[in-house]
Design goal:
191 residues; alpha+beta; L,D-transpeptidase catalytic domain-like; eight-stranded mixed beta sheet; 3 helices; 8 strands; globular; disordered N terminus
């Protein structure tokens, strides 16, 4: 009897495949990879930002397709415009709205930033919900006051005019990955 239970336990352990990440669905990961393949983008990683997660919790996730794992996660500020609050973001693609835009973005073009670690990446909207991203100067960057760790139940608010804004430590990790990429990387903001 003990041998049978041990055998069942071994089979269970070896056949168990952990979920990609509790905060990113398998269908989102599959859709992201298919999009990258179709649009000739980098297929080693994707940056996912789930704006339905509380702003005091990690809601930015860098997912490595080859490792099938989240390799970086961190806080991410949303835009302050149009009545956005720390717990209820308002989304817009309109120039001057100071709101975050939803959808898929192509991230490429490393440049100087006045904020955080002084590096930003250009973001090009790939959908009608974010087609004005480049015109709005929406970029991926850090801002020193953004904490490096979750602050829940406190909220993170007031650091963004529509850009996904990260802590300096998170941005350094992402920069180390992005600056080596030859193709654009997909960044997907969703709720």
């Amino acid at each position: 009897m003990k041998n049978a239970l041990f055998f069942i336990l071994l089979i269970t352990l070896y056949s168990f495949k952990p979920q990609a990440h509790q905060k990113i669905s398998e269908s989102k990961i599959s859709a992201a990879l298919a999009f990258c393949q179709k649009d000739n983008m980098d297929t080693s990683l994707v940056i996912m930002i789930d704006m339905s997660i509380h702003s005091g919790k990690n809601r930015l996730f860098v997912y490595d397709f080859e490792k099938e794992a989240v390799i970086i996660e961190g806080l991410c500020a949303h835009g302050v415009g149009r009545g956005s609050t720390a717990t209820k973001p308002v989304f817009s693609n309109e120039v001057g709205s100071n709101c975050t835009s939803l959808g898929k973005f192509s991230v490429k073009g490393r440049s100087y930033s006045n904020w955080g670690i002084n590096i930003h990446y250009k973001m090009y909207g790939l959908e009608k919900t974010n087609s004005n991203a480049f015109k709005r100067i929406v970029v991926l960057h850090s801002y020193t006051p953004v904490p490096n760790k979750e602050i829940y139940p406190q909220t993170l608010f007031g650091q963004s005019a529509g850009c996904p804004v990260l802590s300096d430590a998170t941005m350094k990790k992402i920069d180390d990955l992005l600056k080596t990429k030859k193709k654009p990387v997909l960044l997907w903001i969703y709720t």
